[in-house]
TrEMBL record:
InterPro entries: Ald_Oxase/Xan_DH_a/b, Ald_Oxase/Xan_DH_a/b_sf, Ald_Oxase/xanthine_DH-like, AldOxase/xan_DH_MoCoBD1, AldOxase/xan_DH_MoCoBD2, AldOxase/xan_DH_Mopterin-bd_sf. Pfam families: Ald_Xan_dh_C, MoCoBD_1, MoCoBD_2. Residues 42-160 form the Aldehyde oxidase/xanthine dehydrogenase a/b hammerhead domain. GO terms for molecular function: iron ion binding; oxidoreductase activity. Gene3D superfamilies: Aldehyde oxidase/xanthine dehydrogenase, a/b hammerhead, Aldehyde oxidase/xanthine dehydrogenase, molybdopterin binding domain. The lineage of its organism: Bacteria, Pseudomonadati, Pseudomonadota, Alphaproteobacteria, Hyphomicrobiales. Keywords: Molybdenum, Oxidoreductase. This is Carbon monoxide dehydrogenase. It comes from Pseudorhodoplanes sinuspersici.
């Protein structure tokens, strides 16, 4: 259904009560269908590979087939001689450009700067992972470029490789960089070691767990692609590519190209998924922009799925040792963590965050935890670089805590639900200063916890467990609370433009890569200014139209862009009052605004905002000093992090003969603060839950000892499918945030956080009949079966 065609066309909606109808159907809190869906489901979306420019040519990247090696030479002569080939380029050709940057500088525990070795677009003397770009070919057709790429001859002497962070820190491990001893890029520390040690010394019980947070291939629907253009007369670059925010991508590219920001334009159309991976600049973008300048023609590059598996940044990959100190009654005293984060062959733009600060911010979750100590080493290995992936440390932190709680409950003989209750932060304690340094401004964690148990029918679980047993299945139930700390404040644009055709355009620096921004943003603007929903458009993917933009990530979009729209709307109202005062012949101080109309106080004389905009377009003459337009270009300075939270409960059935695990029941209660569009929010949770189930039960990127990715295709790397998806129960229990004007909290990553914890807790609960207390992700059939067989074996005396 095209929702634009169903809405009333009147711009004077409050005359006959239709304003109330309009807000009831399209206002904040209504489940309005996504504006873009009719276009996308009919196949009319415009993704990067759909773009073709006049005289464009095609690029193919030549990648290292070795995980580690010395580059002795690259023979390009045969490739250059092939038909249609316009250029073959190596590192020497790109020598004038800068390096790809890590955008998140950290300090080591001793105060020194972390090690970030220079990474250029093409490898020169050494390759450090399979897929490392070493050359690229440009030809008249894509087929000619592929043929030429295969004709490039690489002379590389293989070196020993290392793929696990724990192995890379060993004394005899291969060294990736001469100036990074022990392959440790960052030695991070948080917390008061002496106070934490004292808490552990006084503890009545200490629970310890060692976990592996497995590496994931992001595998979005749309592989990366880009088209580079160069205007020699203006010395101006244009890149068409996927991103999570064109303003930030422009800044990254300008820095690498050595250009002023206004000499670079980034355009992003529809994006088929990212989950963190497409937020950063990649070597391929520099390659095609260079070729565009050299050849004077647009250069197009589209990755294939095989290239995507080894060149797109991966997610997760942490090894961690955890300790939880408790008093005799099960109250938490302190948590201590020591982890190794795998960075891959280079430091990606935000790579250190998931393994360090985001664990600290999220591990305490909804529990009173007086002390936190976190030690983390970020380590280089001969693998594809790692970056933020849906949650970027938030799901992990919650997963670590919830696994500790279930284990501690079993060890201390305390009911796992009761142990959680004893440590919940009570509503009366909010605002709550957490030991992570964050202050929780809102929430009712105990209420959500109890409500979830009711809707999940935990009381009926034993009967369902007996039914499963009668069918030869093991049944387990897992509970997991989560609290996520969303992205920190950043500037965001709130632009409002009244168009010549009567539409109103929102301009924002966040970017929709699947979330559905156009609809909720329009709902916010419609409520703020009374503008008909069907007249509102969204511009988000053109860096030339932005004055600020933090991009989309960290569950921040509705909080940042929503607040920017609210503030920009207030400016529109102030300008409108000044203009309306002349139209209505009254003092500006006597003009009131409500429900889309400017009215002289105490009278029935008024003018609608859309009618006022039409008068301005028609040449309304206004005195000097009066605003001449309702348009606004505003920058919101950012709201503090918010704290979406909730509780998820799931039940699994396991076939002990095969180890196959199925999620058979799933319930959740979530607090996302004010919900702008419940339909979209529930969809976000569904997507996050499925990704969490994917990691918990099947996904795992595996390398061999030489650095070859063994799971390099969908034949080897398992992904969740429709049959993996249970019916996902969703209930909203909103407690609005107090730190932003809409009271929103964000929802994009929450499903993943909830699913990881409850699915794995359910798996372990089902296996507990064998005395199994822990199993690392993924709980694949082979792993579950092996764990059962090992548990059945007689234990050594």
């Amino acid at each position: 259904m095209n929702i634009r065609e169903k809405a009333p066309q009147s711009t004077n909606l409050d005359q006959d009560g239709s304003q109330d109808w309009h807000l009831a159907k399209f206002g904040v809190g209504q489940p309005v269908l996504r504006n873009e869906d009719p276009t996308l489901v009919q196949g009319h979306g415009r993704y990067t590979d759909d773009i073709n420019l006049a005289e464009q040519v095609y690029a193919v990247i030549v990648r290292s087939p070795y995980g580690h090696g010395i580059v002795n030479g690259i023979d390009t002569e045969a490739a250059k001689a092939l038909p249609g080939v316009l250029g073959v380029y190596t590192a020497a050709d790109l020598a004038g450009y800068g390096t790809l940057k890590c955008l998140t500088p950290f300090k080591n525990r001793d105060g020194s700067a972390m090690k970030v070795p220079a990474r250029y677009a093409l490898a020169d003397k050494k390759v450090r992972f399979v897929g490392d770009p070493v050359a690229f070919v440009v030809a008249e057709t894509a087929a000619q470029a592929r043929d030429a790429a295969e004709a490039v001859v690489l002379d590389i002497d293989p070196l020993p490789a290392v793929t696990l962070a724990s192995a890379a820190t060993q004394p005899d491990a291969p060294q990736l960089f001469d100036d990074v001893p022990g392959n440790v890029a960052l030695d991070y520390h948080y917390g008061d070691s002496d106070k934490v040690a004292e808490a552990f010394a006084q503890a009545a019980h200490v629970t310890r767990l060692s976990l592996r947070n497995t590496r994931l291939v992001v595998a979005p629907m749309e592989p990366r692609a880009a088209i580079g253009e160069y205007d020699s007369a203006a010395n101006h670059w244009t890149l068409h590519s996927q991103s999570q925010g064109v303003f930030g991508m422009r800044g990254q590219l300008a820095n690498i190209l050595g250009a002023e920001p206004d000499k670079v334009r980034v355009l992003t159309g529809n994006v088929g998924g990212s989950f963190g991976m497409k937020a950063q600049a990649y070597p391929e973008y520099i390659c095609i922009l260079h070729a565009a300048r050299q050849l004077g023609r647009p250069v197009k590059w589209t990755d294939d799925r095989s290239g995507s598996f080894v060149s797109d940044a991966h997610g997760r990959d942490h090894e961690i040792d955890l300790e939880l100190a408790l008093d005799k009654d099960g109250h938490f005293l302190a948590i201590r963590a020591s982890s190794l984060g795998n960075m891959g062959g280079f430091m990606a733009a935000v790579a250190p965050i998931p393994a360090t600060t985001n664990i600290v911010k999220n591990i305490a979750s909804v529990y009173r935890t007086p002390l936190i100590e976190m030690s983390a080493k970020c380590v280089f290995t001969n693998t594809t670089q790692v970056t933020a992936y849906r949650g970027a440390g938030r799901p992990e932190g919650n997963y670590y805590m919830e696994r500790l709680i279930d284990t501690a409950a079993a060890e201390m003989g305390i009911d796992r639900l009761e142990l959680r209750r004893r440590n919940h932060i009570a509503p009366s304690q909010i605002p709550y200063a957490a030991s992570s340094g964050m202050t929780y401004d809102s929430g009712d964690f105990p209420a959500l916890f109890e409500e979830t148990q009711k809707i999940a029918d935990m009381a009926g679980f034993e009967a369902r467990k007996r039914d499963s047993a009668a069918r030869g299945k093991l049944r387990g139930i897992g509970i997991g609370s989560f609290l996520e700390v969303t992205a920190p404040p950043s500037k965001e644009m709130g632009g409002i433009r009244f168009e010549a055709n009567g539409d109103v355009t929102i301009i924002t620096g966040t970017l929709d890569y699947g979330q559905g921004h156009a609809t909720p943003f329009a709902q916010v603007l419609s409520r703020s200014l009374g503008i008909p929903f069907e007249r509102i458009r969204l511009v988000q993917g053109d860096s030339d139209q932005l004055i600020a933009g933090g991009g989309t990530g960290g569950s921040r979009s509705i909080t940042a862009s929503g607040a920017a729209i609210v503030e920009a709307s207030a400016i529109v109202i102030d300008k409108g009052k000044a203009i309306a005062s002349h139209v209505l012949e009254a003092s500006p101080g006597d003009i009131e605004f409500a429900d889309g109309r400017f009215t002289i106080a105490g009278t029935d004389r008024s003018i609608g905002i859309m009618e006022l905009a039409e008068k301005l377009r028609s040449g309304l003459k206004l005195p000097e000093g009066t605003p001449q337009t309702l348009d606004v270009s505003h920058t919101f300075n950012g709201a503090p992090s918010a704290f979406p939270n909730g509780c998820h409960i799931c039940e699994v059935e396991i076939d002990p003969e095969t180890g196959a695990t199925e999620v058979v029941k799933y319930s959740s209660v979530n607090d996302f603060g004010t919900i702008i569009n419940p339909l979209l929010v529930e969809g976000q949770v569904h997507g996050g839950v499925i990704q969490g189930i994917g990691q918990a039960l099947m996904e795992n990127a595996v390398y061999d000892e030489d650095g070859q990715l063994l799971t390099g295709s969908f034949q080897d790397y398992a992904m969740p499918r429709a049959k993996s998806s249970p019916a996902i129960g969703f209930v909203s229990h909103p407690v609005p945030a107090t730190t932003n004007p809409l009271g929103t909290k964000g929802c994009g990553e929450a499903g993943c956080a909830g699913a990881l914890v409850c699915v794995m807790n359910a798996v372990v609960d089902a296996l507990s009949v064998y005395g199994i207390r822990h199993l690392d992700m993924p709980a694949s059939p082979s792993r579950v079966w092996a764990a059962i067989q090992a548990a059945k074996q007689p234990k050594a005396a």
